[in-house]
Each structure stands twice: as structure tokens, then as C-alpha cells.
Amino acid sequence: MVRSMGILSQLEEVNRETLSPYLFLVCSKSFTSLLNQVVRRNQITGLKVARNGPFISHLFFTGDSLIFCKAIGLEAKSILQVLRKYEATSGQMINTDKSSVLF
Question: 76 exposed, middle or buried (CB, 10 Å; 0-12, 13-18, 19+)?
């Protein structure tokens, strides 16, 4: 019985480890959806890399997110609203100590 409990706990650990990347994808998908909503409403602009290129409003990396907008109060407020809504719906908290804003 003790041995089977050890195997079960090992399997649970493997399941947690393999589930983590999928949870990241689900969370990033919902965050993307929230950002795309404010882009469609013209509340944030994003940036263009090339003259005829598309606007880019955000980029996600492992553990990092970059959000692009004009340096005006209305767009900053829209991003803050998205972040607060994401926190409320996902249960994740934005770490303001590790966050920064650049203009």
C-alpha cells in the first residue's frame, strides 16, 4: 500500500508539471483576448514595425509580456483596466515590483 501511494504521488507530480504549460497557454490566450478587445475599440494603438506592416499591440515571452501603446493617459488607463480585469478573472496578480513602463 505504501509503495502504491508513492507511485500515485509521483504520477500527480508529473501531471502537475505537464499541466503547467497548458495553463500558461490558457491564461495568455485570455489576456490576448482582453488586449484585442481594447485594440478593436481603438482604446490602444500599438506600434508599426514597418510603414505598411500591421500594428503590434503585444508580445508574449516565457514569463514576460510586452504591451505597446501611445504614451497618452487614455491608452495607459485602458491597459491598466485590462490588467485589473485579467487579475480579477484569472486569479493571478500582476507583480508591480517586477513591472515597468517605458515611454
Answer: middle
